[in-house]
């Protein structure tokens, strides 16, 4: 086992521990992060096949917001932390267990993107946006659903209410099809028995290759 460094080496923080994004940098990072998750084949497969039920697409939006909130609450989150977080959501929300290392690969790209944004390097975000613009002709709009606002009701899900939603959204300058910050939608309600214990509702774990 490697010895714990001492002196100046011990005082030097890791790259991830120093990444606190500014208010201007954060939307760009969240934009790119959401595109990475929305183009992750394993997650796309789970959504397209509704492994998470009929609201699988909404769960993906919430997942993007959950990742954004993870970094807000713990800026020192690294690749392994994020990989575990993504795998846990896939299992809990989509009943899916991966047999590959794609979650770690996505986590690595997200961390790299965060480091670039912290250095005001938007090349990674711009490349992702360019890719998304080409794909978005046949894709729905990407959204990041945040945890910190639970005031929305079912009107958010109505197509006719899109104009009313605009006041609650923060557009990212990268383009019209860029991910947006929207208020959190209602989650699936927990089922609690008469003794106060939460019942776990699963129909069996699925495996994504």
UniProtKB/TrEMBL annotation:
User: Which portions of the chain have biased composition (kind: Acidic residues)?
Assistant: 148-176
Going by the entry's taxonomy, the superkingdom of the source organism is recorded as: Eukaryota
Family annotation (Pfam families): WGG
Q: Where is this region: Disordered?
A: 139-185
- ATP-binding: present as a keyword of the record? no
UniProt xrefs under InterPro entries: ARM-type_fold, Pre-rRNA_process_TSR2
Q: Which GO BP terms apply?
A: rRNA processing
Q: Enumerate the UniProt keywords alphabetically.
A: rRNA processing
Write out the similarity annotation: Belongs to the TSR2 family.
The protein depicted here goes by the name Pre-rRNA-processing protein TSR2 homolog
Q: Tell me which species this is from.
A: Orbilia brochopaga
